[in-house]
Amino acid sequence: MSKVYRSHILVCGGTGCSSSGSVKIQEEFERQLKEKGLDNEVKVVPTGCFGLCALGPIIIIYPEGAFYSMVQVSDIEEIVEEHIIKGRMVKRLLYEETVEKEDNIKSLNEVDFYKKQLRIALRNCGVINPEDIEEYIAVDGYQALGKVLTEMTPEQVIDIVKASGLRGRGGAGFSTGMKWMFTANAQGDQKYVACNADEGDPGAFMDRSILEGDPHTIIEAMAIAAYAVGANKGFIYIRAEYPIAVKRLQIAIDQAKKEGLLGDNIFGTDFCFDLELRLGAGAFVCGEETALMNSIEGKRGEPRPRPPFPAVKGLFAKPTLLNNVETYANIPVIINNGPEWFSAIGTEKSKGTKVFALGGKIKHTGLVEVPMGTTLREIIEEVGGGIPNGKKFKAAQTGGPSGGCIPAHLIDTPIDYDSLMSIGSMMGSGGLIVMDEDNCMVDIAKFFLEFTVDESCGKCSPCRIGTKRLYEILEKITSGKGTLKDLENLEDLCISIKESALCGLGQTAPNPILSTLRYFKDEYIAHVVDKKCPAGVCKALLSYIIIADKCKGCSACSRKCPVGAISGEIKKPYVIDQDKCIKCGVCMETCKFDSIVVE
Amino acid sequence: MKSLAELQEIRNKVLNQVNLRKEREDGVRIVVGMATCGIAAGARPVLNAFMAEVEKRNLVNVTVAQTGCIGMCRLEPIVEVYMPGEEKVTYVNMTEDKVARIITEHIINQKPVAEFTIGAAE
């Protein structure tokens, strides 16, 4: 019998909250509880991500379920004195949306941010202590593995995964069950399973949060997969830039080995499975499956042509099953609850849920999981809390450097693999960057191209040279030197690269350009014909102008201008010398009479 | 790990830890008044005794919590028991010795200990 505590203080230990000081908060709680002799009654539990990263550091105190946000070390004494000792919640620190009239608190599930969410892959994040295997077992952990090993044949396991309709969460959306079947059917004396935890899209952190908050679920799922396809060895390829995830995974692997959930004769059967971590150095291309396998083998992280597909000839030229973290996270629940339960969630062709990392111009930056088919509007306006500062929604970018932009008029598009594909974007791994009217779409396309130019491995010329040329054309357009012919060239080159690049990185690299060209062509035209940037982002196309009627001639702007571009006589309108102006905007901030405008 | 039964054993051992963090409507709540008046009258040993008893009997559906002043400081330590679908029962002048009986008779066998309740004291 384990010790009973009357209260649990859950402190988020994900990367988001850790970087805003949650580790210190945890230590301070432990210190204060000890000092007051409460450490026998109240337990402090570090957990994974709760999702509302914008409000971190977050703590939740049970049994009340009080959700405290933006907690500082200096607040802890008050929380201990008031909440823990006297049972009075510290209202000023409660997440405002949970506070109801008459001091009651709402259940978290009723708060806008969580109401529309359905947490399957994230089911244990923020609920259990990821460094304690017993807590994972308490929430039905390793039940699915036990059931699979003792009651089912590998074929039955594959049938369940197939029937669930689960598709790969890494981006391409290939049927997981089919992938398992191909690997199971492949001939080979030795087979491998691998987990792609090389999350590289800018702004995406779904996989990291799962690994940090619930590492055992990945271990369990990989063992199930290994049994289904006939492998006895697994690799998790994770980037070294995720130190907390690496540490927790290693702890989880060690604990699982100690409990005999990894190793020989698991659950008293003939099944043996061993798991190893492989750290990646952070190259984007290593998230591509063939490059990832080269990297695990110790070779240079460059893709190789497919076919042969990994299911036939993967790691060390043996049949290999490679799935993404989030895909694996769904497996144990599918086994426990049955494929019918899973396939009842979502849309006809996209089953289950999808985790998104919300970022950009949105109130609730953080991690959300919604059923497939939820519309973009619901995610942005309801779950995400809308666009801050009263600005207007302009577009959402999904799928990172491989994806595209969804414009405002398509905001009611249901989010699933096929709907996104049909409007020229893609699900991708789940980064969702929200943009408002202050974002220039040409500049956004340039940002992603700069990323792919940097990350191109250089093996094939369409990607190595082509993305560079694309970037140069965009550079030309944003600096006001573009022509209509450039727009044509841009589109032609995009299509050629898509058709000729070796791997997914190159084939999808032009997507940000193609989708912005498709939906925001007027902005491109404004850049090349009118030489204007409508959003006011591209510096070369801006000019700061003093409106003579409004200018009082106070000289404040002239004194602040770092390059001496503003001149004039006191009490008469001043003038900005456009040749000297570096467009820093200091004059506009300085002017008290709003007489300086950007055009 | 040799069998599912072994896994189940670990699960049962830690279940009530994690259960505390679930939002549940069906659980029993034992709430101890822990304002200054309650603490001064000896509420803390009572709270600890409840926790020890819950732990000893491995009651997975029971939470022990604390609350502030209920307003009848002269009757402290006061303990309220909430069972699903039942009126709350208020025990007054609580001591450690009374805890075991409340757990066995009221929490486990659903029969409140009338002589410890506020009705008997007034």
Helix content of chain B: 40-55%
Q: How many discrete structural domains of chain A?
A: 5
Beta-strand content estimate of chain B: 15-25%
CATH fold type of the largest domain in chain A: Rossmann fold
CATH class of chain B: Alpha Beta
Q: Main sheet of chain B: which strands, in order across? A: 2-1-3-4
Write down the overall geometry of chain B: elongated
Overview of this structure, please?
Chain A is α/β, with parallel strands linked by helices and 599 residues long. Chain A is built from 24 helices and 17 strands. Chain A has a five-stranded mixed sheet with strand order 10-9-13-11-12. In chain A, strand 6, helix 11 and strand 7 form a beta-alpha-beta unit. In chain A, helix 6 packs across helix 13, helix 10 crosses helix 13 and helix 18 packs antiparallel against helix 19. Chain A is globular. With 122 residues, chain B is an alpha+beta fold. Chain B has one domain: 3-Layer(aba) Sandwich (Glutaredoxin). Helices cover 44% and strands 16% of the residues of chain B. In chain B, strand 3 and strand 4 form a beta hairpin. In chain B, helix 3 crosses helix 4. Chain B is elongated, with a radius of gyration of 16 Å. The mean pLDDT of chain B is 86.
Write the layout of secondary structure elements.
The complex is a heterodimer of chains A (599) and B (122).
Chain A: E1 7-12, H1 15-19, H2 22-35, E2 42-47, E3 59-62, E4 66-68, H3 76-86, H4 112-115, H5 133-138, H6 143-151, H7 154-164, H8 176-185, E5 192-197, H9 206-213, H10 215-229, E6 233-239, H11 243-258, E7 274-280, H12 289-296, E8 320-324, H13 325-337, H14 339-343, E9 353-360, E10 366-371, H15 376-383, E11 393-398, E12 404-407, H16 417-422, E13 431-436, H17 441-455, H18 461-478, H19 484-500, H20 504-508, H21 511-519, H22 521-528, E14 544-546, H23 556-560, E15 566-567, E16 575-576, H24 586-590, E17 596-598
Parallel strand pairs in A: 1-2, 5-6, 5-8, 6-7, 9-13
Antiparallel strand pairs in A: 1-3, 3-4, 9-10, 11-12, 11-13, 14-17, 15-16
Chain B: H1 4-19, E1 28-33, H2 36-41, H3 43-57, E2 62-67, E3 79-82, E4 89-91, H4 96-108, H5 118-121
Parallel strand pairs in B: 1-2
Antiparallel strand pairs in B: 1-3, 3-4
